[in-house]
Write a structure and sequence with these properties.
Length: 168
């Protein structure tokens, strides 16, 4: 695979922020998965926050987990299923509400959560070093970009630019 995708050759390359963010997210995910495996963890990278949430908050329903992680319900369900297949979580029917099911960490899941937290502390150092190399706080930049695009989406920005172009 090339280090430079086709869109980098285009005059409109700066517009491909989403593609760059996607490539970066995939690269980080792949590298963190290798990092987790090296630490003798079985948990998929994308499931770390779910395991840590259950470890810190105890049993929770799918809706509660999805809301806490700010994820779509279907994505959370998929991740919970992955964790069930690894015997890290189990699903139980709520004794008071038969329609409600909660997810619980298994003993294996609790052990994994302890290891994950230790590995995450290493991750903090790694990404602080990367931020220093970049000359900016990467987490702050990512969070700020997310917040700003939620406040004023791309389509709104495009409409504003079109209005400004007409005035010019």
């Amino acid at each position: 695979m090339s280090n430079s995708p086709f869109f980098e050759q285009l005059s409109v390359a700066p517009a491909f922020v989403g593609a760059r963010a996607f490539r970066l997210a995939n690269l980080i995910s792949e590298q963190v998965q290798a990092f987790l495996k090296n630490a003798d963890l079985v948990i998929p990278t994308q499931c770390v926050s779910l395991v840590l949430f259950l470890d810190k908050n105890g049993p929770a329903s799918l809706v509660e987990i999805a809301r806490a992680l700010d994820e779509q319900h279907q994505l959370t369900a998929h991740r919970a299923k992955q964790l069930e297949s690894l015997s890290l979580v189990r699903r139980k029917q709520d004794a008071n509400d038969k329609r409600r099911r909660t997810f619980h960490l298994t003993q294996k899941g609790r052990v994994e959560a302890e290891k994950v937290e230790a590995v995450c502390r290493q991750g903090v150092e790694i990404f602080e070093d990367l931020s220093e190399e970049l000359g900016c706080d990467l987490n702050r930049v990512l969070n700020s970009a997310h917040a700003l695009l939620q406040q004023r989406p791309v389509v709104s920005r495009a409409i504003e630019n079109q209005k400004n172009d007409v005035r010019s």
